[in-house]
């Protein structure tokens, strides 16, 4: 991974090449995805390894994207999305209105309603939006991402918490965000 490059990936990296190909496919299918997950985390300054590319699409655009990917050479249906067999990289597709995780009451928002950062080849959510999406999932990996991102942006922690909390629908999710912010503050204080 290389800081300063889109998603902190070199152009020859398989995940970056998948994102480039996906951007072309989405333009042609008139789909406007937002990159979420590990690549978005990398963009916001916490470098971590990720095995796939995760995107969020609008419900109205999901069918067009699925159809297009099924017709593309080298793309095969796999788990919650597709896999590019030429690059060996998976694509997880999250759809507006679907639950963010099994048992969660939080739902993925419309990507058009997110504040985004223009990154080539595909945009990522603004940091507060990404934090909210991570909290919505309730997964341990996502909780760890929230803590690490907050530690890297400690001077903005309070404003990020406020902005992220606005995106969360449930008191449970807002409580989880508050706990993660407290954890990030405590860990940041130990490092000083």
Distance between the termini: 26 Å
**How large, in whole angstroms, is the Cα Rg?**
16 Å
Main CATH class: Alpha Beta
Extended strand count: 7
Give helix % range. Answer: 40-55%
Which structural class should the secondary elements be placed in?
A: alpha+beta
For the record, the CATH architecture stands as 2-Layer Sandwich
Give structural notes.
The chain is α+β, with helices and mostly antiparallel strands and about 190 residues long. It has one domain (about 5-190): 2-Layer Sandwich (Beta Polymerase, domain 2). The chain contains 7 helices and 7 strands. The chain has helices at about 15-30, 40-45, 60-70, 125-135, 140-150, 155-165, 170-190; strands spanning about 35, 50-55, 75-80, 80-85, 90-95, 115, 125. The strands form 2 sheets. The chain has a 5-stranded mixed β-sheet with strand order 1-2-5-4-3. The longest helix has 21 residues, at about 170-190. The protein is globular and about 50 Å long. About 40% of the residues are buried. The mean pLDDT is about 95.
Summarize the structure.
By secondary structure, the chain is of the alpha+beta class. 47% of the residues lie in helices and 15% in strands.
Topology, please?
Layout: H1 14-29, E1 34-36, H2 38-43, E2 52-57, H3 59-71, E3 75-78, E4 81-84, E5 89-95, E6 116-117, E7 124-125, H4 127-137, H5 140-152, H6 157-167, H7 171-191
Parallel strand pairs: 2-5
Antiparallel strand pairs: 1-2, 3-4, 4-5, 6-7
